[in-house]
Every structure is written in structure tokens, then in C-alpha cells.
Design goal:
By secondary structure, the protein is mostly beta strands. It is built from 2 helices and 5 strands; from the N terminus they run E-E-H-E-H-E-E. The protein has a domain at 5-71.
């Protein structure tokens, strides 16, 4: 459950668990801005199901893998985030904590 604040982030992979299941978060009870989930890898293609407990939750948007690879999503600061086809399969990554190549 998101009971605090989450911003400028994304999720990939299959979502599972008891109770509510959404593309980005199971239960939205906080503030979420500029967040995304990968509809290709999550198993949740319904663009209104970013949060499991509420339809069309503000601040959560579903993108395909190709969309995540095509440029930094809206709200992602390019001084914090980078994108390179040779790193992280072209998915955005944190500059301060790059994934292994």
C-alpha cells in the first residue's frame, strides 16, 4: 500500500499478491506523481489499473516496454535519470546507481 508519497519512478515485471493488484501499486492511499508501469511485462494491460484499489489513479500511467525505451517518461529529471540502449535493455536507470552492463 502506498500511504506516503511516490514520484518519478516505474515498475516492470509481473505483479502478484493477496488483495488488490495493480500495475504499479496494489493499494493507493497516498500521493503518486509521474509514475509508470510496464504493461508489456506486468501482465496488467488495462491502462486504468495502475492501482489495484481505484481505477485511473492520478499520477500512474501504463507504458509498453517500447515506450519506456523510447525516451525518458514525463517528469523524469535527466540529471537524475538516463537511458541508453546498451544499458538496462534501454529502460531508464538512475545515473547514481547504474545497472550492470
Amino acid at each position: 500500500m502506498c500511504a506516503g508519497s511516490v514520484s518519478d519512478s516505474y515498475s516492470t515485471g509481473t505483479v502478484s499478491g493477496p488483495g488488490y493488484v495493480g500495475g504499479f501499486v496494489g493499494q493507493d492511499g497516498g500521493t503518486i506523481d509521474d509514475t509508470y508501469w510496464d504493461t508489456t511485462t506486468s501482465g496488467i494491460a488495462n491502462l486504468g489499473q495502475g492501482a489495484g484499489n481505484v481505477s485511473n489513479a492520478n499520477g500512474i500511467k501504463g507504458l509498453t516496454t517500447a515506450q519506456l525505451q523510447s525516451g525518458l517518461p514525463s517528469g523524469f529529471d535527466p540529471s537524475v535519470w538516463a537511458e541508453n540502449a546498451a544499458i538496462n535493455d534501454g529502460i531508464p536507470y538512475l545515473i547514481a546507481n547504474p545497472p550492470p552492463q
